Amino acid sequence: MPGKTNTLLIKTPEGIVFSQLLASPVSRFMAWIIDLAAISAAMTVLGFVLNVLQVLSADIAGALLALAYFVLSIGYGITLEWLWRGQTIGKRVLRLRVVDAEGMRLQFHQVVIRNLLRFVDSLPVFYFVGGVACVLNKKTQRLGDFAANTVVIRNPRISEPDLDQLLTGKFNSLRQYPHLEARLRQRVTPMEASLVIQALLRRDEFDPKARIELLGEIAAHFREKSGFPPEATDGITDEQFIRNIADVLFRTRRGKKLEKETA
Where is the RDD domain (predicted)? Predict the structure, then answer.
């Protein structure tokens, strides 16, 4: 069995390597405890409502309560992980996120599969099957993750970079295409957005040749992904293009104001 590591390396077809910290089984279990508390609280409220049916039929009330628990426990994970891009309340608290194991955008069917298999992972009690699978799997995947080709990563808290200092005040030609800006923000994964910032922050750590190659690969990746027309990107360096991408991703509210001040 390959050696276990707490780091996941993902290489895109363009040759860009993403490095992500895998969530430990302990942190995942703690996130599940928080989620279980949230589900239990919702079930308590729902239980009070269904108690009214006890007057009519205790059997019907019991059956509806059991059905409600199944729908809520499954629907909770599916709904939040889809709307919050791989996070539930517990994962948000502990800064965890579900992502595609190959670095692609998380798909709805993956969210559904991993949550439908949650009952298998929870057997016989306290996620024993899922916990054993996480310990034995090199990517810390439970059975639901393995079937859905997903992993859970950890996003450690880092100090927010000074965007005013990091991004130059030059005119950003990408801002002329708001519909493409919005589409880019929808397409970019958290890993890709992090890569853009890290490349700009650490660019001076590379020798000139490696720096040019790295920024060129990242720029080529985002040129293909973004779909901006040639007139929006021609005549600017790869590094400035990446700065423009970072400006679009991280300063969506302030971009237009910045352009007016520097135009």
Answer: 23-149
